[in-house]
Write a structure and sequence with these properties.
Largest sheet: none
Structural class: mainly alpha
Distance between the termini: 151 Å
Number of helices: 13
Strand content: under 5%
Helix content: 55-70%
Amino acid sequence: MSSPSETSRGARRTNRRPREAHLNFKVDIPEFEGKLDPDEFLDWLQTVERVFDFKDIPDEKKVKLVALKLRRYASTWWANIMAKRAKKGKSKIRSWRKMKSELKEKFLPSHYLQENYSKVHHLKQGSMSVEEYTREFERLLIKCDLKEDEDQTSVRYLGGLDEKIAHVVELHPYHTLDELSSLARKVEIQKRIRGKPKPTKPPNHPYPSQRPLTPTPSQSHPQILKHHRPKPTKLPYKPGLIPHQMPSNDVLGAKA
């Protein structure tokens, strides 16, 4: 029969397992054969960095772990590097930073870095959305292996951003490229909402029962009818006649 102390230790171990279960799946460094494809090399290098970060690998073990994953030409090249250093009396490379520098010098040609630096330097948002521009900007930064501080990178990002968006973003505080790109996306959304045309109201046509009737002549031309009166007939004037002796209109009509 187990004692209370053993039972409590077993319970603690049982409670610890679920919290550590997410660390049990296998995450390994991919192999690298040394193909002269800069894009493939950069993808591999980024994966290595993510694995180191996830597993929290100490720096003194990183070089040995990566060396084990080098295959074919990459393995031969690394063995030659170590042999040359030994002949010159130099110590082995034990720092991951130094090993990474050697890898980049070999598998990232200088013309590749220059071409991508030129692309990121002349990159403009143009017809791209802020999200598309940010992705392309970050992709080119990785490709040209640009080493600059956060402020310089932010200035470079603003330089290619749409001017209308950049002018608004500059008025807000930011410290990192992520904060800057997030502000740019918010400004873009606000401008898109403001630029939408307002819905127009449909014309207010009267219903058939409310349509006005056809106006009568008296309604349409009241002034004409008001002044349309028969003109009086002028009586002929004969000198020497007294006004009461002059023929009346009835007499004139009969003679006509």
